[in-house]
Structure to design on (113 residues):
């Protein structure tokens, strides 16, 4: 999608340092990090949110989690632990309407909600 921020970042239109990239997925640091490690794992396919995924996206979602797991190892937070988050629509505070998996770690994150 032409006017989608994460489409433009993941397809290289907006130059960004990738922590990981393959044909289907790009991962890059969050611009406003909430933890010492805060990386966004983003599919190159435009999907607005988890609410719009279909069965055909199952493998892609699994790959996103595997990228997060491997980045956690690379960043040295696998042993201490980390959080993976898909904010979905308004009540979760989703502000970018292109699916992204947050990888957060490097400190004690506190309990959810
Ligand atoms: P959401 O609340 O939609 O799950 O989170 C969107 C995230 O994208 C936020 O944590 C925000 O800091 C991040 N973000 C917004 N704009 C940009 C940008 O232009 N570049 C990067 N790297 N991250 C962004
Ligand atoms: Zn998009």
């Amino acid at each position: 999608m032409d006017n989608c921020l994460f489409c433009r970042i993941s397809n290289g239109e907006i130059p960004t340092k990738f922590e990981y990239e393959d044909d289907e997925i790009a991962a890059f640091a969050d611009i406003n990090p909430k933890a010492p490690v805060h990386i966004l794992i983003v599919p190159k396919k435009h999907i607005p949110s988890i609410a719009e995924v279909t069965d055909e996206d199952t493998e892609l979602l699994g790959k996103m989690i595997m990228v997060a797991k491997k980045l956690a190892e690379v960043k040295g937070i696998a042993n201490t632990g980390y959080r993976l988050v898909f904010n979905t629509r308004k009540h979760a505070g989703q502000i970018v309407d292109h699916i992204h998996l947050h990888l957060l770690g490097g400190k004690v994150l506190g309990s959810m909600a």
Remarks:
- Helices lie at 5-10, 58-74.
- The radius of gyration is 14 Å.
- The longest helix spans residues 58-74.
- Residues 9 and 16 are 7 Å apart (CA to CA).
